[in-house]
Amino acid sequence: MLLFIRIFLVLYGLIAAATGFMGTTAAHNPAATDAMTDNNHRYVAAIWMATSLAFFYVAWNPSETALFRFLMIALFIGGIARAAALTNYPATPFLIFLIAIELVPTVLMLWMHNKLLTAGSL
Q1: Does the structure show a pLDDT above 90 at 24?
Q2: What angle do CA 18, 20, 88 make, to 5 degrees?
Q3: pTM for the full model?
Q4: Are 17 and 52 in contact (CB under 8 A)?
Q5: Which of 32, 73, 95, 113 has the most Cβ atoms closer than 10 angstroms to its Cβ?
Q6: CA–CA separation, 53 and 78 (whole Å)
Q7: Residue 91 half-sphere exposure toward CB, CA atoms < 13 A
């Protein structure tokens, strides 16, 4: 169980680092978006990129229960928000995949982490 948790934490960390970097360094297209929207997108991308450090830290220190739970709940809420946004546009297989990796593993990891805590294995 701990190996599964660590693998997914590192995976989430890599995704956060890569997509956050892409968001912060994306070229600005004034025809597609205004300056404020672009600025907000880059700000959120930078925070997401910085969150990768927390994923990596918890992967190596899984006994950091509060931080682990915060990260899982944040990912889960992000998945709910992404799913709710599907009312605005059609679902694609890639969006369904993104929603699934934000909703399913987080719940499993919370459950596994709690079992490991209860057993005294962390």
Answers
A1: yes
A2: 110
A3: 0.89
A4: yes
A5: 113
A6: 18
A7: 11
Give the distance, in angstroms, between the CA of residue 103 and the centroid of all CA atoms in the same chain: 10
Tens-place pLDDT, residues 39-54:
999 999 999 999 999 9
d(CA 8, CA 2): 10
Pick from 9, 3, 16: nearest CA to 67: 9
Confirm if 6 and 61 have CB atoms less than 8 A apart.
no
Burial of 68 (0-12, 13-18, 19+ CB in 10 A): buried
Return the closest-CA partner of residue 70 out of 58, 84, 60, 56.
58
CA distances from 51 to 25, 93, 119 (A): 17, 26, 28
